[in-house]
Structure prediction request, 181 residues.
Amino acid sequence: MNIERKHLDKGYIQIYTGNGKGKTTAAIGQAIRAAGAGYRSLIIQFMKEYPYSELNALEYFKEFISIEQYCGDEFVYKKELPSDEEKNKAISALQKVKDEFAKSNFDIIILDEVLVSIYFRLIELQDVIDTVKSKPSNKELILTGRYCPQELIDLADLVTEMKEVKHYYQKGVTSRKGFES
Prediction:
């Protein structure tokens, strides 16, 4: 890409939540749009250690979009609490975000599935609130996931709730590569 690198003057806090499909897709779309304008994004994925299709697609934008995966979600399917090891990975992800806030490497930081990570007790709400409150004015911060706590909605500048009206899962269609994974 031959796009001039730019830096944000003013950034906001966005949240994509709800039980509908498209929260991660919306956040990644925002990163791609920002890349087209010369801004760099860092996507931190919680509860995703699987090689989702977006990882392949984002290779084409690697000059402007970096993606890192922290902590898995296997404990959810086993109906267990997250292990200390997984919790420590989530804490290190938030520390990475705070470290990046102090640098000029990225203009947009996306915390993908951080909200559902709070719900499943992988990470504490207060740790996420502290991270959000530490955001400098020249960074955009995007949080995604179901079950957004009101405390984070109150801190956000933009909140979009994805609502499921109808889904083919209800007809037995499983996750399809390139669409849900």
Remarks:
- Residues 13-171 form a domain with the Rossmann fold fold (CATH 3.40.50.300).
- The chain has one domain: 13-171.
